[in-house]
Amino acid sequence: MNDLGGRGHPKKLVIGASGFLGSHVTRQLVAAGEDVRVMLRCTSDTRGIDDLTVERCYGDVFDDAALAHAMAGCDVVYYCVVDARMWLRDPTPLFRTNVEGLRHVLDAAAAADLRKFVFTSTTGTLAISNSRPVTEVDVHNWTDGGAYIASRVQAENLLLRYCREKNLPGVALCISTTYGPGDWQPTPHGSLIARVAAGKFPFYFRFSSEVVGIEDAARAMLLAAERGKVGDRYIISDRYLSTREVHAIAAAATGRRPPRIGIPMGVLYFMAHLNDLASRVLRRDLPFAVVGLRMAALMSPLDHGKAARELGWEPQGVDIAIDEAAKFFAAQRV
């Protein structure tokens, strides 16, 4: 039976290790020689970590006993659980997981003897600006992100409140859209890369967004555990890229013709409104929702200088990550 008491040097706990980011955090911890424990649900798709030697424990973020058990003997917790289904007609699950589930985890973390709690936040909690790149000190100033963004803002605020009021050694990383290999489930943006890599999506959308390589994002999580200032947040993003550039990189990686048909925002909004109408009529959650498109269109260029200065984080290049993502998806078809 596995020892959960933490004999020897402290363990590193990854909650949400089966997800895209969590699996890469786990992989980098194992590669660094750390003693790694992961907390999973029994139903989790674990293809991203099945080749790794890690200690597994099972439970969900509402199971207080399982959380305490998982954190025993750990000095760092990497929290990588996010419900990102912004298209849900009923937003209750978003707040239940992203806020109430997090509250259970933070209560357990505040009671544990942790050195650091590294929280996966999102660039959606940041401000927007038309005049300059946004930094961490800019106050969130928009309300068009729907229930998903509202839940994530509440979650980040909850974490920071625990840092102030309960001495939780927490740090938040505001991570942008991630690309790279090992996107098994896959993410919605990863699905588009898969279609481009297969030569089945000759389109690009006429907007831009902040993007980062998944391995760069995971490395930032590890750096934050060592160097992040308690109660602070850090922007983890590489570049502001158009979807045309993203899809062109993916196409080139697999020898496909680059996307050549641009879809204007007006057309995208029309299609998204049809999606939402069909969702209501069919009583089904359909992913191409207006709220997601609006959120993508609003995002501003970001300044990751604080992460570079304080964490020593420098991205290796999202171009490489997109290239590797396309090749990963192409290999799954073989």
Description:
The chain has a single domain (11-244, 297-327), classed as Rossmann fold, CATH 3.40.50. The chain contains eleven helices and twelve strands. The strands form three sheets. The chain has a seven-stranded parallel sheet, with helices on both faces. A three-stranded mixed sheet has the order 7-9-11. Helix 3 (92-111) links the parallel strand 4 (74-79) and strand 5. By secondary structure, the chain is an alpha/beta fold. The protein has helices at 20-31, 64-71, 92-111, 146-165, 188-197, 214-227, 243-253, 265-282, 290-298, 305-311, 318-332, and strands at residues 11-15, 36-40, 55-58, 74-79, 116-122, 170-175, 177-179, 203-205, 208-213, 233-236, 239-242, 261-263. The chain is 43% helix and 17% strand. Helix 7 crosses helix 11 (318-332) and helix 8 (265-282) runs antiparallel to helix 9. The protein is globular, with a radius of gyration of 20 Å. Residues 13-236 form the NAD-dependent epimerase/dehydratase domain. InterPro entries: Epimerase_deHydtase (IPR001509), NAD(P)-bd_dom_sf (IPR036291), NAD(P)-dependent_oxidoreduct (IPR051783). It holds the Pfam family Epimerase.
